[in-house]
Amino acid sequence: MCCELNVYWHQRLEMLPFRTYSSCSGGCWILGAGIWKSNISHLRFPGHIVFLHSGVKAIQVLMSMFSVVFQVGAIVITPTRELATQIDEVISHFRKHFPQFSQCLLIGGKNPMEDIERFKAGGGNILVATPGRLVDMFRRKAEGLDLASAVKSLDVLVLDEADRLLDMGFEASLNTILDFLPKQRRTGLFSATQTQEVENLVRAGLRNPVRISVKEKGVAASNTQKTPTRLQNYYMICKADDKFNQLVHFLRQHKPEKHLVFFSTCACVEYYGKALESLVKNVKIMCIHGKMKHKRNKIFTEFRKLPSGVLVCTDVMARGIDIPEVNWVLQYDPPSSASAFVHRCGRTARIGHQGNALVFLLPMEETYINFLAINQKCPMEEMQLQTNVANVLPKLKSLALADRAVYEKGMKAFVSYIQAYAKHECSLIFRLKDLDFPSLARGFALLKLPRMPELKGKSFSDFTPVDVDTDSIAFKDKNREKQRQKFLEQRRKERQEQEGKRKFTRNKAWSKQKAKKEKKKKMTAKRKKEEGSDVEDGDMEELLNDTRLLKRLKKGKISEEEFEKKLLCRGKDVQLGPASGSDSEG
What we know:
The chain has about 575 residues and is of the alpha/beta class.
């Protein structure tokens, strides 16, 4: 069986795009042959090698196990649904020649009951899952799924993009999953970066770990370009109120090609994606971001099949995702970290193909170019501003005036952009205080500036709000507009009630208010007197006299000797004058 399997692997490898083994590929193949006898951490391999290795190893292990449909032998955990879907496809490619094994994809965005029924019907010797959905499946025993029992014989666990798993807040989910799994297993932890969080996960989840790192050494490492050699990197310096015009012009000039357009926030994706649909005709525009629940899987699958089009996205698509034949990666907003810049660019020029990447920068951000060249070994060429560019911002404003949905999306996008900018990792380059807010607001085609802490107390003469009552802008969607009107009516009634209460209070007789205050004052004095009633009158008088004496000393009206003498005379019932006595006293 082993010989048959090895012959099969070589036949499958010959069908793949690469013809020679790089040092990384060779390392991965050697890894599959022997090192998996131990736990492995911190592997740094290209995405397609990781996909291949995850699938190959899972089936290799299963070949040595007794084939039971509902016995899980391998689990692959990834941070995103898109990455899980791709790994599932790779495993399917190899598994179709071994029909005795079954696999199951468990990701969010689908009905969990469908996943349960699919597992109960066909089993899953190999599970490819995202952390949240896998934890949910472990807790579905009441629905007839006993996944905890099914994983008792688990032999292989693969944690792909482990650093991203932790960055996205899956640490608690991973700990829950590890509690369900047997301690005696082989674990592969794949990570592009070595963070303290990853180190903690290695200590907690791996027994006898073996660390493998593929990297250049010495002078070669310091001069090695981190982006593919077939990737052409460009940057464009333009003002905030011209950036969107340049983007629209670029997309109109490259309609037959396939593009990924990266924005910094989900709200920006929603807003500019909607705008591009109206402004760039005869091009398929699709949007995807992390807050999408049910549409993400469908959109991702559909875009991968398209020969051309535009996918407007956040960094949810920046790592590990393999989309065929992407011609351009356009970074409308620079990423929050320098390493994410390289990951974004890596969505094009994959497996030997030609690719291009362009980042739009504001004039104040130009030093970012030198920073990337030094920090990420990523040289770039400048792309000049396009001439004869149409101004599409008035059109975008008219869209906002015609539909409240566009207006509200624009406001949310502006706020989210500023908040993301304030949290940028390279804060010495991306400084919030240096932002040209009026130019930025014009670039978002805002009708007016929103109320937010970052703009509080500032006035901008360069920005002219539209002379329109924004409350009068209606939704095109009649149901949403009906709900909005209902909400506005309810708010009007609440305001009227509050104003009525205020008027009633304001018209109260002044004499009654004064009497109420006097009564309250007397009650407070009485309460204080009762609380201090356990103090004898003589003691209180003595304390007051000492206080007066101390005040006179501080004012310099008596000397320290006189102060001590008068204190000693207390026992002899010496009577002191008032605190305001003359200097000749004593």
